[in-house]
Design a protein that fits this description.
394 residues, Rossmann fold, disordered C terminus, alpha/beta, binds zinc ion
Length: 394
């Protein structure tokens, strides 16, 4: 067993981390180890999984055996010397980062190293990034920072230049399928999900194990094919956004309620001798700050959800192009082959490429905070009537 088994389809990155862990444990060339790391890779490639596996390899006496108490507590999120920061909102703020820097300044409790993992380091605000920069410039002797981001451009150059870079690639479908099979999925389903997810591990897992995710995907894939006129395009754009909003709401509602209850409890709700009104008054400011965070998280969830749909569209049109060009290559969406072939016959490869460009541009707009309604409308219209240079609303 090894923690590296979780890091799917990334032999080069694993080799780099293994060398670092060896150096960190006092054998192997000392040059292999450093105090600040940057793990980049496309969404779903397993950036945080890789970062957490590295953390385990640093705190495990056997350099990541996956079986000892240290390895298991890292995986469970309870190791005292490993902190993993996940942003549920659109940004990591300065105060939050200050607290993290403070926590990183102490000596490790049980392990030889203290490891601070920041998922979504691309969401650090500028002030937060500058706070972090100071900590990375003068790290505590036994502290290791592992930052994760989609690409190196997502971080300030000053931070980038002080980190060692490990790049993950899109994991190949065979590696993703093998992972799912290890997790108990049968091989036909694993292969379908690995291809359909286009290398996004979390998405593959959801497709393989959740009927609702599969049927939602099937519905989404139908949308571009149902449009016959411009009115449809606007209607579909509206529906797409509504579906995304509802899906996102379904996922965040429970979390919001739990947080609100915890906040009120922290201010004494349910305790003896304090009225509900008094609790509300005391908690007022904290509650309104929490509401702000929750609103941001909801907005991010809608964008994430829409991006998943766009990736599904992208896969569909890539398949259409594969058929149109007669490329001998397995389809991404083996389950909708007839629809792919029909779409391939109905148009030419030039139009398909314009559609692919339009979807790629729409994903960039979504990431760049263009309002989702605008992005959806512009995309649907372009899928209906493909134009060169993707007439992008910026
Ligand atoms: Zn271990």
């Amino acid at each position: 067993m090894s923690v590296w088994l979780d890091v799917v389809g990334q032999p080069a990155a694993v080799a780099q981390f293994e060398a670092a862990a060896a150096a960190a444990h006092g054998h192997g060339p000392a040059l292999g180890m450093t105090h600040a790391w940057l793990v980049t890779g496309p969404p779903g490639s397993g950036r945080s999984t890789a970062a957490v596996a590295f953390a385990a390899a640093l705190v495990c006496p056997q350099e990541g055996c996956a079986e000892c108490t240290a390895c298991r507590s890292v995986r469970a999120g309870s190791h005292p010397d490993v902190t993993v920061v996940r942003s549920t909102t659109l940004s990591h703020g300065k105060e939050q980062t200050k607290a993290l820097v403070l926590a990183a300044s102490g000596n490790p409790v049980t392990a030889p190293w203290r490891v601070m993992v920041i998922e979504d380091a691309d969401r650090l605000t500028e002030a937060a990034a500058n706070t972090l920069l100071k900590a990375i410039e003068e790290p505590a002797p036994a502290t290791v920072w592992v930052l994760c981001a989609p690409s190196t451009e997502d971080l300030l150059p000053t931070i980038r230049s002080r980190t060692r870079h490990v790049a993950l690639r899109v994991p190949p479908p065979a590696a993703v399928a093998a992972l799912l099979e290890r997790e108990g999925v049968d091989s036909a389903m694993a292969s379908f999900a690995a291809h359909a997810s286009q290398g996004h591990i979390g998405r593959a897992r959801a497709l393989a194990t959740d009927e609702e995710t599969r049927s939602r995907r099937a519905q989404i894939l139908k949308i571009p094919r149902l449009m016959t006129g411009i009115t449809d395009a606007y209607g579909m754009a509206h529906d797409l956004r509504k579906v995304a909003e509802e899906d996102a709401k379904g996922r965040t509602r429970q979390l919001d309620e739990t947080e609100n209850a915890e906040m009120l409890a922290a201010y004494g709700q349910g305790a003896e001798g304090i009225s509900a009104g008094r609790v509300k008054a005391l908690a007022g400011r904290s509650l309104s700050e929490l509401a702000k965070t929750q609103t941001q998280r909801a907005a991010r969830s809608v964008r994430d959800e829409l991006d998943r749909y766009f990736v599904d569209f992208l896969g569909f049109y890539r398949d259409v192009l594969t058929v149109q060009l007669g490329v001998d290559q397995p389809l991404i969406n083996i389950d909708v082959r007839p629809a792919v072939e029909q779409a391939a016959q109905a148009g030419d490869s030039g139009d398909t490429m314009k559609r692919i460009d339009a979807i790629t541009a729409a994903r960039a707009q979504l990431a760049g905070n263009v309002p989702p309604a605008l992005v959806c409308e512009s995309l649907m219209v372009q899928l209906l009537h493909p134009v060169s240079g993707s007439g992008v609303v910026r």
